Amino acid sequence: MIDEGYIKYESHWTPGPATHVEATRLLESWRRPLYEAGLIGEYEDIGVGYGNISVSRGSSGLFLISGTQTGHLAATDERHYSLVTDCDIRSGIVRCSGPIQASSEALTHAAIYNLGDAIGAVVHVHSRELWRDRQGDLPTTDPDVPYGTPEMAREFDRLYRMGGLKEAGVAVMGGHEDGLVSFGTTLEEAATRMLDLLEY
Predict the structure, then answer these.
(1) Residues 1, 149: Cα–Cα separation, whole Å
(2) End-to-end Cα distance, the chain
(3) Residue segments in the chain with a per-residue pLDDT below the cut of 70
């Protein structure tokens, strides 16, 4: 059952103007090929968007992420991104600001940034084919752990330390139907790692 798009953490959103406008343009430049490949989009039958992308904004834990329910948009600009200013993963609390509320996957992105200072960008996509075919082949989270939860954060930590995630930079979310995530030191690396999976 697809449960994408539903925020499972406690969200504290401060509406305000867009920030980091140049970064939103960089995000859009890599979001576009992901969207065109169908890795970001919308389940039209249920009207739910999927897929999101983020980039770190320095060493203080801030990151800029696509807003909730923007997957259906063919193009985005600064109005469609939210700055995550604080995450308490254990308590499931996310604080963000900007013209839109952060994606339902913000807690997962925060958990991945917490894995190492070298991680500069995170990509979350949906693909039924990749999700089905690459489970177990790529590092795969426990199917009993849902997205957007503190338990998922612990799963990524486990895979990063012992399950080959640090080397692969890509994981299948076993408990999140169709979901995969990639990361990299740059947005180009994170997005390319995901796009390259389509070449196999």
Answers:
(1) 17
(2) 26
(3) 1-8, 59, 200
Q: What angle do CA 104, 47, 148 make, to 5 degrees?
A: 15
Tokens of 34: 């992901």
**How confident is the prediction for the chain on average, in pLDDT?**
91
What's 197's DSSP letter? G
* Strand ranges, E, within the chain: 10-15, 41-43, 48-50, 52-56, 63-66, 81-88, 93-98, 121-126, 170-172, 179-184
Residue 93 pairs with which residues in a beta bridge?
10, 88
d(CA 70, CA 88): 24
Q: What is the spatial distance between Cα 164 and Cα 160, in angstroms, rounded to a whole number?
A: 6
Distance of alpha carbon 4 from alpha carbon 12, whole angstroms: 20
Task: Render pLDDT for 145-200 as a digit per residue (tens, 0 to 9).
Answer: 887 777 888 899 999 998 899 999 999 999 889 999 999 999 999 999 999 999 86
Question: Which domains does the chain show, CATH number per domain?
Answer: 10-199 (3.40.225.10)
Inter-residue long-range contacts of 116-119, CB under 8 Å, 24+ positions, other chains counted? 116/160, 116/166, 117/59, 118/185, 119/56, 119/183, 119/184, 119/185
DSSP code at position 70: -
- Are 172 and 145 within 8 A, CB to CB? no
pTM of the shown model? 0.93
